[in-house]
Specification:
The complex is a heterodimer.
Chain A (H helix, E strand, L loop, with lengths): L1 H16 L12 E12 L4 E10 L17 E9 L2 H7 L7 E3 L5 E4 L1 H6 L7 H5 L8 E5 L4 H6 L7 H15 L6 E2 H9 L6 E9 L9 E12 L2 E6 L5 H6 L6 E6 L5 E18 L2 E17 L8 H28 L7 H8 L1 H7 L3 H6 L2 E10 L13
Parallel strand pairs in A: 1-4, 1-5, 5-6, 6-8, 13-14
Antiparallel strand pairs in A: 1-2, 2-3, 6-7, 8-9, 9-10, 11-12, 12-13
Helix pairs in contact in A: 10-11
Chain B lengths: L2 H16 L18 H12 L5 E9 L4 E8 L5 H13 L3 H7 L5 H8 L5 E4 L2 H9 L3 E5 L5 E4 L29 H9 L7 E8 L5 E8 L5 H12 L9 H8 L11 E3 L2 H9 L3 E5 L5 E4 L11 H4 L2 H30 L7 H11 L6 H21 L5 H18 L5 H14 L5 H39 L1 E2 L2 E2 L48
The chains are: A alpha/beta, B alpha+beta.
Chain lengths: ~400, ~525
């Protein structure tokens, strides 16, 4: 009995020593950081970190449900430091609570930092620190700073939730802006065969007359990163090329011309791409096959949709649209010598020996590549109606 | 006769002999029955201390030969009418000549039995046995000129009628439950199993109370080695009194220090019957409606009789629900505290903000808050059991309104803690057997403290300790986690889900191996 007791006791003591890190923290002592803005102060040569925290509204006397009813408030505070961690620690002088990074929803990188300073190292802390996740979406504050973006307070939502919602929504509805998460950026930065793209967000004047705020945030384009620096932007429909090639299209829509001045809208519901890369006399040959499905979701001109020729024409036009998006995207990436589509990685997988010869000058090799794109689009429905309603 | 019985009587005797306060001047050292009726009456009276409820009726039948008869019985323990009509009346009218001659003959009880119309008539001449029989409510019949005492069984004790079970209720199923009377209880079972295989053995436990303890099993179906072990364990009990079957339970269970019960206690006859048919034994104790059943496995505490009385889809669903409830009752407060203090990252952001909002301005650390609320609930619950019926509403109003609503509004505790505590409390009541719920009730506090100390890691450690303990438990040699570990595929038909009855044609583990099939040529329905 005694020996058994000693055995169990020793088990418990060892178990407690093996516990690793754990920290007891009451909810009311913690400030939950929702968004982090990272900017570069050129004059001071320091990082400026902006923290956007959730501020739980205190349990009111009228309703005992706390902040359950309305959107949570936000609190903004800033700190500077030579490293991000230093800045985070500096913030304790300005904020009464322990910052808790486990619920960070977004990281916003200032334009200056992305353009002039390298992004290569700033993500280290996200992977190294146990308190923060590595699956946080990253955006670049296009033409502005992370601080400015986080300072825009929307009327109905927490600012960070608002940005996050826009990213998710846009990726789902349009496929132009994809959320790139920290770990993906790190993977692409460290890979020789691909470069990251990071979505952009800009501050625009709010045109909503009912809103008390004069500013609003708007997603704009995908930033092309080359060797850790922002070198250009893929804008508009060009940025769809990334979604098409990475099979990230959930839904998007294409407007195709149906007569002299009107358009018809096609909703793309499914898209699969297959890419083959191989070296041919020193130039990469990239063959892209895209298979897409879609439905007609708006017709602004009266065409006989039952007619096979009309259908075929629509399909053809949509295919051409998709093809042009992809071609334009790749052309821009080529001109900027940044393989944002990861063709290098594909070559690495498909022809390792060819990749070995070119890996160290891949971006230059890529810019000379020969690209052939084949798009096969099928209309599989016309939604709730077949023919448009008759009009005089 | 068990050995402790003898030692008990010895004690009484030695006390009498050595007692200096007893002024035993007239009849010193008379400890045995004599041929004098008055001496015998006095002896019995002495043994009992002449209590007011001792009724002695002496009739002088023939003054000339000094032939007299006396009836001694305990008032309130025996059937007065039966004594009047079946004992006293025939004795007063009897042909005493013939009887007197045969009193000393070996078949005197038979002769007397022709006169006296009672169930059972015995002859004895040991004063201790006579006193014991009288104490049980029988009537002692004494004659002059003989040392033999005739015992007529006239026991009748006021008892409660059958009523609905109070702690193990079902919607569909039998509504009768055991009472305090042992014979009523055994009859409730016997009426349900009209089979000669049903065996009852009587044992006597309690050096002072001499409580009747009866052991019931189905001969051949119950494993003999388990029964032998049970008899040995009951015989080894050394205690002065048995007031409830829990007294027996504490002595005979395998692990005396475990928080988990290894014997089922039930007040439902149908539960006893079902378990007897699975080869288990039942222990009936006089004076309590709770019957012990063993060997018991952990899973059995989650099996309600109703699982078998309703559609098996529903039965299975409810049983799984019960396992979930047990998990909730055991873990939720600990998990709540662990997540709220150590693992904020595990809470969805929106919920976290809501919870953080509730926590604003609450003065105590969350573990203290949870502990206080758990204790408050335990107090309420104990008060609910103990309080007089008339003030029942007061407690529920005070408990629900003041402690729940007002404490949150006043900012003493956060609303989420109240939700967690009440969820735990409700979940605890889904257990069909009360004693396994108690284990969850106590272990919950352990997990709560572990969770607040080192978070989820502590909960995991606590779980390992509890599981290791559960797996080490045995009930009469049967592993406590029986069909799960050691894993038996065929026995899974009645563990987490209940398969339809035609598929349940084999008996579970404790049944003796020769009787594995429930019906002859059984198992044919099984696929």
């Amino acid at each position: 009995m005694k020996r058994k007791f000693v055995f169990i006791l020793s088990f418990f003591i060892t178990a407690c020593l093996l516990a690793g890190c754990s920290n007891y923290r009451e909810l009311r002592d913690a400030a939950f950081i929702a968004g982090i803005g990272i900017d570069w102060l050129k004059e001071k040569q320091r990082y400026q970190i902006t923290f956007q925290a959730f501020s739980p509204s205190p349990a009111g006397s009228s309703s005992s449900s706390g902040s359950g009813s309305g959107p949570p408030g936000s609190a903004l505070f800033m700190a500077e430091g030579r490293t991000i961690s230093e800045a985070a620690r500096q913030a304790s002088k300005k904020f009464s609570r322990m910052p808790d990074y486990s619920h960070v929803r977004i990281v916003i990188i200032g334009d200056d930092l992305a353009k002039s300073e390298s992004l290569n190292f700033i993500f280290d802390v996200f992977e190294r620190d146990a308190n923060i996740r590595a699956n946080i979406p990253v955006l670049i504050a296009r033409g502005t700073s992370g601080k400015e973006v986080l300072s825009v307070i929307p009327a109905t939502e927490h600012p960070v939730e608002s940005i996050n919602g826009k990213v998710k929504n846009s990726a789902k509805m349009q496929g132009e802006n994809q959320a790139t998460e920290v770990y993906q950026i790190i993977n692409q930065l460290s890979s020789k065969g691909s470069e990251p793209t990071i979505g952009g967000i800009s501050v625009v004047a709010s045109k909503d007359p009912s809103s008390p705020n004069k500013k609003a945030t708007k997603l704009s384009g995908m930033g092309i990163i080359k060797e850790g620096k922002l070198v250009g932007w893929l804008d508009g429909t060009k940025s769809k090329s990334i979604s098409f090639l990475n099979n990230q299209i959930i839904q998007t829509n294409e407007s195709i011309r149906c007569d002299s001045h009107q358009y018809t809208s096609v909703r793309i519901t499914d898209s699969r791409s297959k890419i083959k890369v191989r070296m041919n006399s020193g130039r990469p040959e990239i063959v892209i096959h895209v298979n897409a499905l879609g439905v007609l979701d708006e017709m602004l001109c009266n065409r006989k949709i039952m007619d096979y020729d009309v259908l075929h024409e629509y399909e053809q036009k949509t295919s051409n649209n998709i093809l042009s998006h992809i071609r334009d995207g790749i052309n821009q990436a080529k001109s900027q010598k940044s393989d944002i589509f990861g063709f290098g990685d594909i070559l690495h997988r498909q022809h390792p020996e060819q990749w070995k010869k070119n890996e160290n000058r891949w971006n230059d090799v890529f810019s000379k590549s020969k690209v052939s794109i084949h798009v096969n689009f099928n209309l599989h429905g016309t939604s709730m109606r077949i023919e448009p309603y008759p009009y005089k | 006769m068990p050995s402790f019985f003898k030692t008990g009587t010895k004690k009484i005797q030695s006390k009498k002999e050595s007692s200096p306060s007893q002024p035993s001047t007239i009849k010193p050292n008379i400890t045995n029955l004599t041929y004098n009726i008055d001496d015998n009456i006095d002896l019995i009276k002495d043994c009992l201390g002449s209590p007011p409820d001792l009724n002695v009726r002496k009739i002088i039948i023939d003054a000339a030969t000094d032939f007299s008869v006396a009836m001694i019985r305990m008032d309130g323990m025996s059937d007065k009418k039966e004594v009047d009509f079946s004992v006293i009346e025939p004795l007063s009218k009897m042909n005493f000549e013939q009887l007197r001659e045969q009193l000393e003959s070996p078949n005197s009880a038979e002769v007397l039995g022709r006169l006296i119309a009672v169930n059972k008539l015995e002859k004895m001449n040991d004063v201790d046995k006579v006193v014991n029989s009288i104490l049980q409510g029988n009537t002692g019949i004494l004659f002059n000129h003989t040392s033999q005492v005739f015992i007529a069984s006239t026991r009748l004790i006021d008892k409660r009628g059958l009523s609905e079970p109070s702690s193990q209720t079902v919607i569909r199923g039998p509504k009768d439950s055991f009472t305090e009377d042992l014979r009523t209880n055994t009859s409730l079972v016997r009426a349900r199993i009209t089979n000669p295989k049903l065996r009852i053995e009587t044992l006597n436990v309690g050096e002072i109370t001499h409580t009747n303890v009866e052991l019931m099993y189905l001969n051949g179906i119950a494993d003999d080695s388990i029964l032998q072990e049970l008899r040995n364990r009951i015989k080894k009990i050394k205690i002065d009194a048995i007031l409830e079957s829990s007294y027996i339970e504490e002595f005979i269970q395998d692990s005396k220090n475990s928080i988990f019960p290894t014997l089922i206690s039930t007040e439902r006859p149908d539960v006893v019957v079902a378990n007897l048919l699975e080869g288990r034994f039942a222990i009936f104790v006089y004076g309590t409606p709770y019957v012990l059943i063993g060997p018991a496995t952990f899973i059995q505490f989650f099996q309600s009789p109703e699982d078998y009385y309703q559609n098996y889809y529903m039965g299975s669903f409810i049983r799984i629900l019960r396992f979930v409830s047990f998990f909730i009752a055991l873990y939720i407060p600990g998990l709540y505290v662990a997540i709220m203090t150590h693992h904020h990252a595990l809470i969805p952001t929106t919920l976290l903000i809501t919870l953080a909002g509730q926590r604003e301005g609450v003065p105590f650390p969350i573990v203290v808050e949870a502990l206080i609320m758990e204790l408050v609930f335990e107090v309420l619950r104990e008060a609910g059991v103990r309080m007089p019926r008339a003030v029942g509403q007061t407690v529920s109003i005070v408990g629900a309104l003041i402690l729940g609503q007002a404490a949150v509004q006043a900012g003493f505790v956060s609303a989420s803690t109240v939700i967690v505590v009440s969820l735990t409390a409700i979940a605890n009541f889904t257990m069909p057997f009360f004693n396994v719920a108690i284990a969850a009730r106590i272990l919950r506090f352990l997990l709560l403290l572990l969770g607040s100390y080192i978070g989820m890691y502590g909960i995991m450690l606590g779980t390992f300790v509890i599981l290791a303990h559960l797996c080490s438990l045995r009930s009469f040699g049967l592993p406590y986690f029986d069909p799960i570990t050691p894993f038996k595929l065929l026995a899974q038909k009645d563990v987490f889900i209940r398969l339809p009855l035609p598929k349940q044609m084999t008996r579970p583990e404790p049944a003796s191996p020769e009787e594995k099939n429930r019906v002859q040529g059984g198992g044919r329905n099984e696929t």
